[in-house]
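F.,

This is the one I mentioned.
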């Protein structure tokens, strides 16, 4: 078998409920030149047992007895990889069957391209389609990153050399992507495909404690990168916005409405489009489905729109 062109990096922590579905979505990729590295970050829920049971020649598994967090495990994957490209995914996500094919095609068409991200579908914990996540304009400066973050992190495929040039900082644990984009955006050639080529999970039961941890870590990064803000007031504005959002979600959580506000980030699909996406999900989630089966058309995705920086 020819050497793989892309490594799919799978950082794993307590994802036993969803990991088998992700692995099936990797098997469904139309782009065949891949390998995967799964790193278990000292899980306690059975994730390690699932990984130990794998007997796949293209999936390498690494175990650890110490929980180091996402950023540290991503750096480990990037160091272990030997391929030209590395594709990000979270262990509870699903990859659209055409994701790698579309992204690698972008790199082949533009040798100067370093990073390619995509839009996302959202699904709930039972793999039911919720909609398409709204995609903000691609940030082009550190200040714009601080205002609205960078590309959707789990959808990113990038050249390995780019990942090694911009290693993740392990702390704070819930801000590795924001910190990465602030440091990298001004010195990177990026492209964002608005077409949804990845499935991320959204729990309708809003987790306020998790949201508060994210806001806390983002405030640490706002202070760390205060000199990257557009002007002196931007830093304080970001901090105030963060505290304000946290207060709003805390109030809505108490009223049982936080989940409805979070759901507004998604755009509902029409009936025909939803049926097409449901067919793709069924193909991914059916463990006995053969790749050669022509009954389901997996390339039915919206026309690609691109943004470049």
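My design for it:
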């Amino acid at each position: 078998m020819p050497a793989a062109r892309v490594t799919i990096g799978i950082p794993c922590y307590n994802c036993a409920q969803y990991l088998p579905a992700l692995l099936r979505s990797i098997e469904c990729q139309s782009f065949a030149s891949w390998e995967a590295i799964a790193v278990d970050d000292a899980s306690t829920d059975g994730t390690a047992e699932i990984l130990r049971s794998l007997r796949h020649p293209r999936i390498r598994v690494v175990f650890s007895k110490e929980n180091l967090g996402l950023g540290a495990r991503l750096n480990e994957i990037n160091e272990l990889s030997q391929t030209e490209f590395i594709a990000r995914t979270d262990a509870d996500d699903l990859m659209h069957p055409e994701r790698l094919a579309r992204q690698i095609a972008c790199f082949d068409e533009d040798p100067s391209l370093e990073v390619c991200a995509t839009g996302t579908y959202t699904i709930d914990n039972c793999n039911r389609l919720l909609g398409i996540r709204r995609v903000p304009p691609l940030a082009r400066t550190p200040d714009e990153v601080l205002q609205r973050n960078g590309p959707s992190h789990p959808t990113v495929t990038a050249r390995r050399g780019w990942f090694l040039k911009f290693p993740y900082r392990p702390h704070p644990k819930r801000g590795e992507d924001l910190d990465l984009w602030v440091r990298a955006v001004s010195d990177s050639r990026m492209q964002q495909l608005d077409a949804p080529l990845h499935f991320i999970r959204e729990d309708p039961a809003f987790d306020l404690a998790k949201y508060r941890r994210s806001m806390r870590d983002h405030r640490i990064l706002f202070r760390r990168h205060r000199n990257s803000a557009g002007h002196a007031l931007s830093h304080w504005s970001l901090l105030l916005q963060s505290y304000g959002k946290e207060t709003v979600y805390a109030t809505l959580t108490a009223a049982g409405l936080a989940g409805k506000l979070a759901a507004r980030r998604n755009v509902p699909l029409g009936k025909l489009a939803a049926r097409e996406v449901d067919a793709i999900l069924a193909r991914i989630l059916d463990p006995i489905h053969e790749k050669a089966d022509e009954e389901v058309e997996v390339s039915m995705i919206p026309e690609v729109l691109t943004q470049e920086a």
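Confidence is low (pLDDT under 50) at residues 288-309.

Talk soon.
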